[in-house]
């Protein structure tokens, strides 16, 4: 078994038995579940809206090359620079060169999963640059030396008491501050960093090729400050974030906010189409957009898995997943956790290293049910399992076990032979790999075929 799989099993075993962790995450997901139905009320035809969004993402991915070239042409015409990064190393090198050119000592960063993907904070630290997370949840996680726990709510697994204790330890605040007081402390600290920073980094929720812009959605205003206060604004965005037109935002922004946080629309929604223009009073002097591949074309090349690139990073599938709710986000040891992470991570980081993640699913289909763009996540999880076998990432014992199971299942005399106790012994004692992390299989004394024959004899 691969070391990543062993680590996953160890961490998930510990976390699933942690009742306090389960209480915290279920409390926070419960709050989410309470408000999402209210957010959905803004749609008169929600199924039609979800289907239309899926069609729009299908169009974007089927014509991705044309849309990306159109985006580059139009945003470049407004003074921005576009760089294409094939992988993490290239993206880090581009940002490192920008920081070197600007003599950057402090960098502020708004919430961005793609910068987590390229391990930007660790890279900047190695270059002697202070990288500061400005989203409150991300800031909490950075203070605690942890990766984000959730795509949308990075510190979901922490209670207000946990955060108060962390601030007291790291920032010297009094013990027992309220959430409001803690927020004011973070606000004061971060305001200083905005003034100091030479470079600001953001992600992008959507790429708008028809106007040459990016769209950002947030609730704290830190994204706007990170984009506009430093003299240089760097955008790091995955190439799959394209939607065909700015006119699609009235569909995608409400879908993202409703399924992400239960809001009708988030507090701050911004379109950025270049650096400060002539006659404008604010904004960065320079803007660089890094279009990141980093394995996305592997997904794009697979006609079945391509659908995973429709994801708008709302986090709904994580909140719905019974596995995620028991083991938490950190057990996955990947940038993207939950069902969507289990689908895309093997393509982004290697099937052999992460083929265990698609098996961390009950295949209940709840993730597919809640996805705002109707990605067939449970089917893609099954397809990943199949792909791992096709690529030769299954061991001999596993192949022999499934061969024996298939042979027996297709042979009626074998299926009817013996009794339930004998079958239970064969499966649970000989094929131990199945029951190591599962309950024992329990066969009935007689098969349906036998019962049917007896009934109709």
Please characterize this protein's 3D structure.
The relative contact order is 0.13. Helix 2 packs antiparallel against helix 12 and helix 16 packs parallel to helix 19 (377-390). The protein contains 24 helices and 9 strands. The mean pLDDT is 94. The longest helix has 22 residues, at 19-40. The strands form 2 sheets. Strands 1-9-7-4-2-3 form a 6-stranded parallel sheet, sandwiched between helices. A 3-stranded antiparallel sheet has the order 5-6-8. The chain folds into 3 domains: 3-9 and 315-390, no CATH class; 45-294, 3-Layer(aba) Sandwich (Rossmann fold); 396-455, no CATH class. The protein is of the alpha/beta class.
The top-level CATH class of the largest domain is Alpha Beta
Mean pLDDT: 94
The radius of gyration over CA amounts to 25 Å
Beta-strand residue percentage: 5-15%
């Amino acid at each position: 078994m691969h070391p990543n799989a062993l680590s996953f099993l160890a961490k998930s075993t510990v976390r699933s038995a942690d009742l306090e962790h389960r209480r915290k995450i279920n409390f926070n997901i419960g709050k989410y579940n309470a408000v999402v139905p209210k957010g959905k009320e803004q749609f008169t035809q929600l199924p039609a809206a979800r289907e239309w969004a899926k069609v729009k993402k299908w169009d974007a991915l089927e014509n991705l090359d044309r849309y990306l070239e159109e985006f580059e042409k139009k945003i470049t015409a407004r003074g921005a620079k576009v760089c294409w990064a094939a992988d993490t190393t290239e993206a880090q090198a581009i940002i490192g060169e920008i920081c070197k050119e600007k003599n950057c000592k402090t960098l502020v960063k708004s919430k961005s999963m793609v910068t987590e993907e390229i391990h930007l904070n660790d890279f900047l630290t190695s270059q002697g640059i202070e990288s500061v997370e400005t989203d409150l949840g991300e800031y909490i996680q950075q203070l605690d030396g942890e990766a984000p726990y959730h795509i949308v709510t990075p510190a979901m697994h922490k209670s207000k008491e946990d955060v108060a204790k962390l601030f007291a330890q790291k920032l010297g605040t009094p013990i027992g501050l309220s959430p409001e007081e803690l927020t004011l402390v973070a606000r004061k600290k971060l305001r200083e960093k905005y003034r100091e920073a030479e470079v600001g980094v953001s992600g992008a929720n959507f790429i708008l090729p028809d106007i040459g812009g990016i769209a950002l959605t947030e609730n704290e205003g830190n994204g706007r400050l990170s984009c506009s206060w430093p003299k240089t604004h760097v955008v790091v965005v995955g190439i799959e974030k394209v939607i065909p037109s700015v006119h699609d935002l009235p569909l995608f922004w409400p879908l993202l906010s409703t399924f992400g946080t239960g809001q009708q629309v988030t507090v701050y929604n911004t379109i950025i189409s270049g650096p400060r223009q002539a006659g404008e009073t604010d904004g960065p002097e320079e803007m660089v957009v890094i279009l990141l591949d980093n394995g996305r074309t592997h997904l794009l090349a697979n006609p079945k898995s391509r659908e995973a690139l429709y994801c708008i990073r709302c986090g709904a599938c994580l909140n719905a997943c019974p596995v995620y709710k028991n083991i938490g986000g950190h057990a996955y040891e990947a940038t993207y956790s939950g069902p969507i992470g289990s689908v895309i991570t093997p393509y982004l980081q290697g099937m052999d290293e992460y083929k265990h993640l698609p098996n961390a699913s009950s295949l209940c289909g709840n993730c597919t049910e809640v996805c705002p763009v109707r990605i067939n996540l449970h089917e893609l999880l099954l397809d990943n399992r199949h792909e791992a076998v096709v690529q030769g990432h299954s061991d001999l014992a596993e192949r022999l076990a499934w061969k024996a199971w298939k042979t027996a299942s297709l042979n009626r005399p074998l299926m009817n032979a013996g009794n339930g106790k004998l079958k239970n012994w064969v499966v649970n004692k000989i094929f131990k790999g199945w029951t190591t992390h599962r309950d024992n299989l329990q066969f009935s004394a007689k098969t349906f075929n036998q019962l049917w024959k007896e009934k109709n004899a």
